[in-house]
Amino acid sequence: MPEAASSAPPATPGTPPVVPTTSEPHPSESSIAISISEFRGLCHTLQTLTATQGVLA
């Protein structure tokens, strides 16, 4: 059976994904709340790791 393609557009670097507040998480997924500064720090770390991987590849 083919997998369903995601209808969400790819997230641009530095822009948090838009998640509807009415959506319920999948039963196998848990959710956490983090501050916006922590989220931005994680985005920056991901961008750094992605750039580093590109240089090493």
TrEMBL record:
Residues 10-19 have a biased composition (Pro residues). Residues 1-30 are annotated as: Disordered. Residues 20-30 have a biased composition (Low complexity). This is Uncharacterized protein. It comes from Vitis vinifera.
